[in-house]
Design brief:
170 residues, alpha+beta, 3-stranded antiparallel sheet, 7 strands, globular, binds coenzyme A
Amino acid sequence: MNAPTVSRIRPDDLPAAIALMRDTVRRVNARDYSWEQVTTWAPDEVDPARWATLLAPSRFAVVAESDGVLVGFADLEPDGHLDRFYVHADRQRSGVGRALLAALLAEAARLALPRVFSEVSITARPFFERQGFSVLAEQQVVVRGVAFTNYRMERRPEPAGEARRAAGFR
Ligand SMILES: CC(C)(COP(=O)(O)OP(=O)(O)OC[C@H]1O[C@@H](n2cnc3c(N)ncnc32)[C@H](O)[C@@H]1OP(=O)(O)O)[C@@H](O)C(=O)NCCC(=O)NCCS
């Protein structure tokens, strides 16, 4: 399998991104969360308006593709918040997450943001720790009546040039 290429999301990517999210949550996050939790997080029917926000010009949303297949996506909000971050269940631990994060950090550095931060799943915590994020707090969040444990994590962005090169961003 070839290394992923990372580029800005296009409207045509949305259906594949939603399907990838549902599959990854149900197959990968299911290691750490109950079936009730994963089907609340990744229901059969998602809110199309919420997902269309990925395309908002104020957001920096990227997809990773390998051999023409969408293998991950992630987005950065203007205040440094990392909102969504998912890698295909069949492409875990193959560098896709690292490539996505490098692109987001490069953009954060370009915007001179002082920090990037997120609410990170139990599953993703080791990845973010290895990528230089620190845990600020463990928290319980309630989504559609179901409680989840996650972690508020943050780090500073890298200098822009370095992170963009690491991202292989086009
Ligand atoms: C978290 C996630 C995005 C990481 O993506 P990934 O493509 O698997 O990560 P990478 O292959 O780029 O990993 C880079 C490095 O991070 C570390 N890492 C990644 N996953 C890890 C894990 N589960 N345990 C320990 N270290 C991990 C490793 O050091 C890894 O390098 P290595 O494989 O050479 O040792 C992915 O596991 C995922 O989609 N998880 C489910 C969705 C999710 O929880 N998203 C976050 C929502 S808050």
